[in-house]
């Protein structure tokens, strides 16, 4: 049993300090006072000077950090010590990190995030734990990044926990990722519970170990509970409708670990208030349980946008989970507006859906639905803060010089809703034009054009493909003539 002694001592300004004695890591003491009178200096009146001179803190930031340290130390209990010893220890900590290659800005972030690092013992605590991290392959810039992101790990006996993670993960490759995402509490639990929890999960469902490892690296906390609580969560996942053989079981576990049954029920009620049935909600959870992890206000805003503004129905939304997994402001709204303008001007087919555009990554979307159409350059730039000049530069000015996209670029994730004739014509014409060196343009980029625009851009200007088009459609060359559209050969194009 740890014996804790408490005493209150009146300081010059009447502030009461609580002092206790704790063995081990944080035994270094602290003076706590707001007095700045000469003859009775305190930590909060001298440490700011060190932080300003050694780490480049602003005066306001240095006082705030010093006060935070004082409160934290008082909360856990700390023995009194001379002001000189306290500041001297803080300086030794700063010098220790500098000798390891940490930049001033790195140390400043560490101290801001975890002020108690300043009262750690360098030789007894910091140095041995840094060496242990080195032994696990975490060194150099990786070490710096790990400590800066999660400095509290140096307040943790993480050795046993790391051994458990190594056993489960099978290598040291992702240890730094784990260290960045777990605080001391989880490290203490993981040393005892991680291995039995993973064994329980494997026996409970058919999730491959590789996928479990990936999820542990991405989101470790759901797997670091006490084993009895972890087992309860496995049962709760099935209760919300996700079977143990589902590929979504891991995600259901993450949902359950972060929300109580009451909060999950409250979020389901939000969907029902927008006309969803319980069956609709259950389907959504089975498709992607992470849809319920958003805050209630954000769920309401998303449903309002998708249903009240765009007119989408629950079954359509459930079938297109991407509508729930991306930002409204950064992706859904800008891409909806681009499609809206293109359809109004007859530049793409009316049945081109928002989910088809949302599934594209940013580069593919810009190349296929923004760059070829000057009509949406300004719209997209205003809604996404994209540099308008870059769009024009990449487009090489004008619709005749459309963005060149490699055929293989991101085609696997493209879900275009194409008409049969546009699909056939696009494939055959592009082959002919590319063989003659006329252009380097991908089939998906051409296929999204409506038929009239496709003819004007890819058939009428090039006599080389008139015969191909005639053979495929039965149209005569004469019927292709459109007023104001000159016929061009590959030679004339090359000479421009």
From TrEMBL:
Alphabetically, which GO biological process terms does the record hold?
A: DNA-templated transcription termination
Q: Which InterPro entries does the record match to this protein?
A: MTERF (IPR003690), MTERF_sf (IPR038538)
- Please tell me whether the keyword Transcription regulation is annotated for this protein: yes
**What Pfam families does this protein map onto?**
mTERF
Q: Does the keyword Transcription regulation apply?
A: yes
One of the entry's Gene Ontology molecular-function terms is: nucleic acid binding
Family, per the entry?
A: Belongs to the mTERF family.
Kindly provide the name given to this protein in its UniProt entry. Answer: Uncharacterized protein
The species this protein was found in = Chenopodium quinoa (Quinoa)
């Amino acid at each position: 049993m740890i014996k804790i002694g408490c005493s209150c001592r009146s300081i010059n300004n009447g502030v009461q300090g609580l002092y206790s004695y704790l063995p081990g890591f944080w035994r270094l003491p602290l003076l706590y006072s707001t007095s700045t009178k000469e003859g009775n200096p305190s930590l909060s009146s001298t440490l700011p000077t060190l932080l300003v001179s050694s780490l480049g803190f602003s005066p306001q930031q240095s006082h705030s950090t010093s006060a935070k340290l004082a409160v934290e130390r008082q909360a856990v209990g700390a023995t009194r010590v001379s002001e000189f010893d306290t500041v001297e220890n803080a300086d030794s900590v700063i010098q220790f990190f500098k000798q390891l290659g940490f930049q001033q800005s790195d140390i400043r972030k560490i101290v801001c995030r975890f002020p108690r690092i300043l009262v750690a013992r360098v030789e007894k605590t910091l140095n041995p734990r840094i060496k242990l991290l080195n032994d696990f392959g975490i060194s150099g810039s990786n070490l710096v990044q790990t400590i800066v992101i999660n400095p509290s790990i140096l307040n943790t006996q993480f050795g046993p926990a790391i051994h458990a993670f190594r056993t489960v993960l099978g290598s040291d490759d992702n240890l730094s990722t784990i260290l960045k995402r777990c605080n001391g509490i989880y490290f203490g639990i993981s040393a005892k519970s991680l291995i039995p929890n993973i064994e329980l999960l494997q026996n409970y469902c058919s999730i491959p170990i590789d996928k479990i490892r990936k999820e542990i690296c991405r989101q470790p906390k759901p797997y670091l509970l006490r084993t009895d609580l972890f087992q309860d969560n496995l049962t709760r996942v099935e209760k919300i409708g996700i079977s143990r053989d589902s590929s979504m079981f891991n995600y259901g576990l993450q949902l359950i670990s972060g929300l109580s049954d009451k909060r999950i029920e409250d979020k389901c009620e939000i969907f029902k208030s927008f006309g969803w049935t319980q069956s609709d909600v259950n389907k959504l959870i089975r498709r992607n349980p992470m849809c319920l992890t958003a805050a209630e206000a954000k769920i309401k805003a998303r449903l309002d946008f998708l249903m009240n503004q765009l007119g989408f129905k629950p079954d359509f939304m459930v079938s297109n989970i991407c509508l729930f997994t991306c930002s409204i402001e950064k992706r859904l709204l800008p891409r909806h507006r681009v499609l809206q303008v293109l359809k109004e001007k007859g530049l793409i087919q009316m049945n081109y859906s928002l989910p088809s555009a949302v599934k594209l990554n940013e580069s593919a979307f810009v190349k296929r639905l923004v760059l070829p159409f000057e009509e949406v350059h300004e719209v997209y730039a205003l809604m996404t803060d994209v540099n308008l000049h870059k769009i024009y530069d990449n487009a090489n000015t004008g619709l005749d010089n459309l963005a060149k996209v490699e055929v293989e670029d991101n085609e696997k994730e493209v879900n275009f809703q194409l008409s049969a004739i546009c699909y056939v014509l696009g494939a055959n014409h592009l082959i002919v034009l590319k063989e003659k060196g006329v252009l380097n343009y991908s089939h998906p980029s051409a296929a999204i054009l409506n038929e009239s625009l496709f003819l004007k851009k890819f058939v009428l200007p090039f006599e080389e493909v008139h015969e191909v088009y005639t053979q495929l459609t039965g149209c005569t060359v004469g019927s292709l003539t459109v007023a104001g559209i000159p016929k061009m050969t590959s030679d004339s194009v090359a000479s421009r």
